[in-house]
Amino acid sequence: MLAVLAVLSTLHFEGDIAPGNGDYVDVPFAVPAGTVEITVTKTYTTGANILDFGVWAPEGFRGWSGGLTDDITIGVAQSSRGYLPGAITAAAGWYVEIGKAQLTDTGTHWTIDITFRDAATLPVLPQAPFAPVVMATGTRWYKGDFHVHDSQSGDSKATLQDDIDLAHSKGLDFINLSDHNTVSQHALVAAQQASWPVLVTRSSEITTYSGHGNGVGISQYVDHRLGRNGRTMANVIDDVVAQGGAFIINHPAENLGTNCIGCDWMHSTDIPWNEVSGIEVITAGYDVGVLAFTPQVVKLWDAQEDAGHRLSAVTGSDDHTAGMNEGSTGSPIGSPCTLVHTGELSEAAIVDAVKHQHTIANLRGPDDPSVDLVAHGKGGATAGIGDDIDELSALDVQVTGGDGYNLELWRDGAKLDELTVRGDDFTHTFHDQASKDDHRYRVALVLSNDPVVITSHVYAHGVVDDASGGCSSAGGGAGWLVLALGLVFPFRARRAPRRARPCSSRP
């Protein structure tokens, strides 16, 4: 016998919306008893106007469409993209949220129609609870893309399988699935992860009208609605950290106006920078990004490092199409990519690596020349990228596949020296005199005056007077730089333990 689908009831709402009085408007409604599925249809006068839509239940978040014009369907077993399935409470306290993404001075007229059904219409996709997986073991640099979208983002055309196939073809070990303002992708990933050759880490791109950021490793939706009930970007970052996630600022210098609403970062002075784990030093295509965005981002990065905050250099393709129909400015998955140094390929290890600056930014992609460095310090101690070391004396740098590139050494945001890489397996040692001050060091590979690879920093602490426990005046000032070939690797022999800086030249 065929089941007869019944419409329990319908509701109609309409109104006018204009700039001002906050960025969000609630349209409350009640759900009748027996409802198994809710469908929301919305319209508005478009043109230069752009409205976002989402739905909240009495228990909280159910999903976010952004500017997607498709109908919204919320069901017990399955919901439409960007929305969470689950129990449907028959009660008041539900509401459709309208976001003022972009409005003309006169605003627009909107309509919302809500249909309540006693049976489901959507086919049910495989879903599962999250279960941690370790895809590989062994300490090495794992390659990934921290900024990937699939069809759970309202503005993305890519399927999960499209993303996986492209990432695997590029030789990536992982992708960070950062769909806009939702976590509906997590259960879909968990149901398929065992069959994939690429690790998918949980995330959400928390997309606001004044900045975007990834919450890497989070499990729950983080409220993106800045200004609503006093919500701030600081609250957003606090919530990511409370879930154990790593917060990464996405494309902070991409001021693209209406082509990317809220893409440029407008929160340089009102956030807890000590809770930010990383920053995208390039997003999207290399030819455009390295000129238009990277120099500005590096300035912001250095300014925060100068203030004592530690940020990983990361990259992201921001791919929404799994590489389909990419033009000259496009950036398919893996272009650029980020290397993370961990002991295993797992979500927890990747989150920890980003939190501790164990990263290298390949601005073009996974085939960029490889770079590694080892710092030498007090008592024969060694440290790698992201680590601390006392009384640094030398930095061993190894470059593979970089013949003809320039190798640059940077200290505290200033370039100290550079030399040309000769050969495909190149090693070099930079020496810096021990100083009473703390310094940070990174290296970059440059071709035709444009950076191609940028490492995160090694953090060197000043000369310590062991007898007094204080800072010694030995070494004086900023020290001096000499260049010499030699010193035997291996790299990553051991790491100095991470600890608080014992002495600092900062007030």
In short:
With 507 residues, this protein is mostly beta strands. It is built from six helices and 29 strands. The chain is elongated and about 75 Å long.
Radius of gyration: 25 Å
Residue stretches low in confidence (pLDDT < 50, at least 5 long) are 466-507
Helix count from the secondary structure assignment: 6
Category from helices, strands and their pairing: mainly beta
Shape: elongated
Number of strands: 29
- Mean pLDDT over the full residue set: 89
Q: Report strand %.
A: 35-45%
Cα distance, first to last residue?
79 Å
The share of residues in helices is 10-25%
Largest sheet at a glance?
A: 11 strands, mixed
